[in-house]
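Summary: Need help interpreting a holo structure output

Steps to reproduce:
1. Submit the protein chain below together with the SMILES for flavin-adenine dinucleotide.
2. Request a joint structure prediction with the ligand placed.
3. Inspect the structure token block that comes back.

Expected: a single structure record containing both the chain and the bound molecule.
Actual: see attached output.

Input attached:
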Amino acid sequence: MTDYEFIVIGAGAMGSATAYHLAKDKRRVLLLEQFEIGHARGSSHGESRIFRFAYPQPAYARLAMQSKPLWAALETDCDERLLLPTGGMDIADDPSGFDSVHTIAATLAELGAQYEVLDAARFSARFPQFKISPDGIAVYSPDAGVLLADRCVRAAVRVAQRLGAAVHECERVHRILPEGSRVLVETEHGRYRAKGAIVTAGAWVNTLLASLGLALPVTIEKEQVAYFDTRSAAAFKPPHWTIWIHYRAEIAYGFPDLGSGLKAGFHHAGHYLERADDNNGVPDQGDLDRLSQYVRERFPALDPIPRNGLTCLYTNAPDHDFIIDPLPGAPNVWLASPCSGHGFKFAVGIGRALADLAQHGETQMSVAHTRRLAALLEARQ
Ligand SMILES: Cc1cc2nc3c(=O)[nH]c(=O)nc-3n(C[C@H](O)[C@H](O)[C@H](O)COP(=O)(O)OP(=O)(O)OC[C@H]3O[C@@H](n4cnc5c(N)ncnc54)[C@H](O)[C@@H]3O)c2cc1C
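--- attached output ---
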């Protein structure tokens, strides 16, 4: 039996960032991951994730603003580029999207962030590669960018290890046993004790919490993204094209071409899985066909046949907000899940929050709105 101060379960975006901060705080940390670091079965793999301040909800915009310098600190610590500044666009050109985009502009104004509202004519003059309707609007945010996702996870793990964290890959946790002021964690290979544990198990959260008789009201969704050939056109690369979110009945989003083509996807495409292990990794052909149609309509200069697609899991709370809370009856076991398909940009901030909460019970990070596990569990009964 080995003793640690903290054990982090799951080395995706959230767990790797939590272990990084705890190690930076000079804590004895063990990070346990059931697969290899950087695997492609969960939620944090792939080339890129959107970073943006542009949220309708001030709490998320604030958390993104707090996270940006923490990403920069991780870049310094790992001596690698992790966040590419590309700027970002929130676009609406039908009634289902206007409210979101107006609220985003209002939130950015309230928080003193930079932004610019473009009507369709100004948008088209600046970004002719995207076809917007004549009554459309867009909010341009210079603070948005692309997080190099695979690189971020590996960097956080590597720096954590360099600072003394123990990292065990391919070691699945079977049980968490709260023992008063300590917690016992049992894996397929051993037993470890610590004064606190942090559960960042992504879509496997309920499999793990079943050992405590808990089940979160979450759904697991298999999402797909696809890459489209830009034929090396500069118009689709930064700084000429940015990350974008297109608010419409089915929200679309995407990334400029960083070398692998223009990446696009639909948010919440609606393919629900019973269990995370049910993901076969094969993109849904219907989604790829609809994405192809979207690219044909919106990016007329692009080849609309996707070059390749990949899958990834969303773990959704009923209202798509996060849950960052101690477990009922186990105040030294913290949970950070699910992040409902928009958590990556905050990972380094959520990791900071979890490291603070596990050590001191409070944090300056903007996560107060996520403390609601008891209410969610009660509503489920
Ligand atoms: C297609 C797609 C696009 C997205 N786009 C964006 C975006 O543009 N911007 C953004 O901010 N967010 C985005 N997200 C959301 C973001 O990627 C996720 O919120 C984030 O990656 C969740 O990380 P996680 O650490 O909670 O989960 P995961 O990455 O799944 O990590 C959980 C880890 O825990 C491990 N684990 C589970 N159970 C155990 C156990 N019992 N023992 C040991 N290890 C265990 C798993 O193997 C896994 O590695 C996107 C998500 C998807 C799927």
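--- end attachment ---

Reviewer comment: The domain at 88-142+219-316 is CATH 3.30.9.10 (D-Amino Acid Oxidase; Chain A, domain 2). The first strand starts at residue 2 and ends at 9.
Status: needs-info
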